[in-house]
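Marked as duplicate of an earlier ticket. Keeping the data here for the record.
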Amino acid sequence: MFSWGRNDHGQLGLGRTLYQPTPTKVLLSGPITQIQCGLLHSMALLSDGSLYCWGNNTY
């Protein structure tokens, strides 16, 4: 998975909150089966059932 753009809340999954103008690979521990993205968060479901979530963390 690659992510880029605004990253004020860490929603790109890159481990930082800096603007990312170019596509950057997000390192996860296995193949992704589903992705969900919102304004301030993102989630990735891996083939082994693991769920990775990052971003605002308000809820």
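See parent ticket for discussion. Strands lie at 2-5, 20-25, 32-37, 41-46, 51-55.
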